[in-house]
Design a protein that fits this description.
It comes from Microbacterium schleiferi. Belongs to the class-IV pyridoxal-phosphate-dependent aminotransferase family. Keywords: Lyase. It holds the Pfam family Aminotran_4. A hairpin with a 3-residue loop joins strand 12 and strand 13. The chain has 294 residues and is an alpha+beta fold. It is globular, with a radius of gyration of 19 Å. The chain has 2 domains: 122 residues, Aminotransferase class 4, branched-chain amino acid transferase, N-terminal domain (D-amino Acid Aminotransferase, Chain A, domain 1), CATH 3.30.470.10; 159 residues, D-amino Acid Aminotransferase, subunit A, domain 2 (D-amino Acid Aminotransferase, Chain A, domain 2, Alpha-Beta Barrel), CATH 3.20.10.10. The strands form 2 sheets. Strands 7, 8, 9, 10, 11, 12, 13 and 14 form an 8-stranded mixed sheet that branches. The chain is built from 8 helices and 14 strands. It binds pyridoxal-5'-phosphate. Pyridoxal-5'-phosphate (PLP) binds next to helix 7 and strand 12.
C-alpha cells in the first residue's frame, strides 16, 4: 500500500554519543523521487531492511528489530547502525501513524556507488488487512531452497542469516507456491530440514511443546517468533529451537507462519495434507501479538 510518510536519515557513527538527531532527519514527499540513480540498493539489492508492525501508533518490538538490523549490518560489512538514531527515527515516523495497523520499514543501503556514506531511510505505510487470513489460515507447500544445512557455515558470503534487500528469490518462491495452489511456502534444505517461509518464521506445536527451526545462520531470527515464545512461556508451555525434519511436518498438532505484520497465520495444510487448527488458541495469540508487547 502507498507509503504515507518517509524520512531520509543521514547515518551517524554507530558509537556517536548524542541524544538529539533532529538535524540528521529530513522528511520527504513519499510520492516524489528521493533516491539517486547510483543507489546500490536499487542497482544490486545491496542493503538491509526491517519491517516493524505498528498498532495504534505503537511500533512493536523495536529493540528486537534493531538488534537484527545491527546483526544484518555485521554480516553484510555495513557500518554499524547507531541504534539511538534509528530509535529516534522510528519514534518520529510512528508519530504519524493513524489508528489501526501500519508498517514501518527501516532501510540501510550501501549507498551511492563511490559515495561517502550509506543511504538510510524509514517509511510508514498502512498495513494490508490480514484479519481474514489470521482466522481462516493458509495452505503451504514445501519448496527446496537448493542447498543443504551445512551451507550457511561453509559459505557465509551467501549472507543467509541477514535480512538483505535481495528478496527476489523470496518473491519467486511465493509465486511458485501460488502456482501450486497454495498461499505460502516453507523452504526446506536438500538434506531434509525445515528452514523458514519467504517472509515469515515457522512455529510448530506437538502437545504442550512449541518449536521453531534453530536460527543458526541459515534463516532469520524472527522477532514475532521471539515474542510468541515469551507469551507461550508465560502461559506455561514449553518452547525450543530444534533441527526439524521436513518429513515430521505432516504429524504436528498445529503450525503457524508468524511475522511482524501478518502476525500468526495458522497453517491448514502442508503439501496437500490437512493440519489440525485451534481457532480459539490462534485468536488469543493474535490478540497478544496486537497488544503493545514490549
Ligand atoms: N524470515 C524471513 C525470511 C522474513 O522475511 C521474515 C519477516 O519478514 C521473518 C522470517 C519473520 O521475521 P519477523 O517476525 O521479525 O517479522
Amino acid at each position: 500500500m502507498a507509503t504515507s510518510y518517509a524520512l531520509m536519515i543521514q547515518p551517524v557513527d554507530g558509537d556517536a554519543d548524542r541524544a538529539d538527531f533532529a538535524d540528521t532527519f529530513a522528511s520527504v514527499d513519499p510520492a516524489a523521487p528521493a533516491l539517486s540513480v547510483g543507489e546500490l540498493s536499487t542497482q544490486r539489492g545491496d542493503g538491509i531492511f526491517e519491517s516493524i508492525g505498528v498498532v495504534d501508533g505503537h511500533p512493536q518490538e523495536v529493540d528486537a528489530h534493531l538488534d537484527r538490523l545491527a546483526h544484518s549490518a555485521r554480516i553484510c560489512d555495513l557500518p554499524a547502525p547507531n541504534l539511538a538514531q534509528w530509535r529516534a527515527a522510528i519514534a518520529a515516523v510512528a508519530a504519524h501513524a493513524p489508528a489501526g495497523e501500519s508498517v514501518i520499514k527501516l532501510i540501510l543501503s550501501r549507498g551511492i556507488e563511490h559515495g561517502p556514506t550509506p543511504t538510510a531511510w524509514v517509511t510508514l505505510a498502512p498495513a494490508a488487512d490480514f484479519t481474514a487470513v489470521r482466522e481462516r489460515g493458509i495452505r503451504v507447500v514445501t519448496l527446496d531452497r537448493g542447498y543443504d544445512s551445512t551451507v550457511p557455515a561453509r559459505a557465509p558470503w551467501l549472507l543467509l542469516g541477514a535480512k538483505t534487500l535481495s528478496y527476489a528469490v523470496n518473491m519467486a518462491a511465493l509465486r511458485e507456491a501460488h502456482r501450486r495452489g497454495a498461499d505460502d511456502a516453507i523452504f526446506v534444505t536438500t538434506d531434509g530440514f525445515v528452514l523458514e517461509a519467504p517472509t515469515a518464521s515457522l512455529v510448530l506445536r506437538r502437545g504442550d511443546r512449541f518449536t521453531t527451526p534453530a536460527p543458526t545462520g541459515g534463516i532469520l531470527h524472527g522477532t514475532t517468533q521471539l515474542s510468541m515464545f515469551a507469551y507461550l512461556q508465560e502461559c506455561g508451555y514449553e518452547t525450543g529451537y530444534e533441527q526439524i525434519l521436513t518429513e515430521s511436518l505432516a504429524s504436528v498438532d498445529a503450525a503457524w507462519l508468524v511475522s511482524s505484520v501478518r502476525l500468526a497465520a495458522p497453517i491448514t495444510a502442508i503439501d496437500g495434507t490437512s493440519l489440525p487448527t485451534d481457532a480459539a488458541f490462534t485468536a488469543d495469540l493474535n490478540a497478544y501479538l496486537l497488544s503493545p508487547r514490549d
